[in-house]
Sequence to fold (527 residues):
Amino acid sequence: MTSPHSPATPPVAVDEAGGGLSSKGLSAGTIGLIGAVVIGISCIAPAYTLTAALGPTVSEVGFQVPAIILVGFIPMLLVAFGYRELNKQMPDSGTSFTWASRAFGPWIGWMAGWGLIAATILVLSNLAGIAVEFLFLLIDQLAGSPGTIAELAFNPFINVVVCLLFMLGATIVSYRDLQTTQKLQYVLVTFQVLVLVVFSIAAFVHVAQGDAFDASPVELSWFNPFEVGSFTAIVAGLSLSIFIFWGWDVTLTMNEETKDPEKTPGRAATLTVITIVVLYLLISIALLAFAGTGDGELGLGNEDIQDNVFFYLSGPILGPLAFLVSLAVLTSSASSLQSTFVSPARTLLAMGHYGALPSRFAKVSPRFFTPGFATVVSAVVASVFYTIMRFVNENVLWDTITTLGLMICFYYGLTAFACVWYFRKQWFDSVRNVVFTLLFPLVGGIILAVLFVITLVESLDPEYGSGTEWFGVGSVFVLGVTIIGLGIVLMVWQAIRRPAFFRGETLSLAAPPSARRQNVPNGSEKP
Fold:
């Protein structure tokens, strides 16, 4: 096991080749393939994301939800292949930050890292909020007092206090070694997936027995995106599907702590995305077949139930076991809250390690071999952000989900383009290289870039998202531009305070690998 750096004086990360990659003192060989996939699924949080996204997606595309899930899956899979290729060449916990820095230079690399950190801080605050709401909802169901206890979750003072307790618990687990995270996630993810599968099967049973709310036979047209009424609806549906797949890249940020770091993280990312798309298709098809897309009491087109589809359908489908669905969503959001800490903490660690942030961020716990300081900072920032937004405007808090989609497109897209550019001298060495280092990441990056621009333009409309307006434009636009602008300001400030990184002295542009020369993780070369 690699010894951690001294918390007091983290070393400057310069290897013999100048500006190459180096170890950060994390616990090597801790996570295997299955453990990485489980943590990846946990971070995506299928129960939480789908109950929030299924209703709005139905309102946009109707029965073509499975088609939109498949279309949204395409850029995620294409980008995942790009991540895999970059990880093979440069397994580093900084992922997007490190790879974009070595492909495009320190300025773009810094912003790629900022995009990842901002996205995870946004989702951490929302995950904590969802966990609070479903905790009170579950207590309400078990106590048999419809609405009375559940309403307490909307009292801002109670909500924030319980939310901060969730955040504290997640921080404590994340601060400890990854083995603790892995063991916890095995239990929580298994339970979550099992409940979702049982929920889906029970829905199909009701359809077969003829007692479904609005039984709708499954048709091939459900999988055809060309059946969607308009391009705008496709874009809206795609934006939502990007959100429901986000989180698989956590498997890459653990690459310095996995067994066989050049292969395991990439395989885990691919397996995670494929597992999630199968699960999403099963659930969405089952609920469409059971409830249809009408606006009746339980129809998926009913605006009154679209914010929490699983809760309203759990009783009719599972009867007395309906509370299991609320428990599954609670464990989904709570487990994701904990596993999501992995990404920002390790990105901040890498940025501190390579001199892009203060050296305090490079501190590794001498006991747990985890980025302790970066984990605590992530928790504090997410907690403060949630508290402020909860008291400013609850609707604005939910607009952070749409803003999250912007940040996902931003840093996933930069990483995909980094893959294309970094391997430019290898593109035509083989058919495999044409596919995995050029075609797939390029198409994935272009799709995400187009979605980013379209969402940014549409979010100018005050009616976009929750309908909240700031300075005459939509709050989603204001949040997105403010977050990116804040990143630029912080980057310039760090360039003034820590010019070495921005001169390429601690993490430099990498020479594009060719068939005759390939960089290995420690910055040396092999023939």
Notes: The chain has 18 helices and four strands. Residues 33-380 form a domain with the Amino acid/polyamine transporter I fold (CATH 1.20.1740.10). The longest strand covers residues 469-470. The CA atoms of residues 143 and 149 lie 9 Å apart.
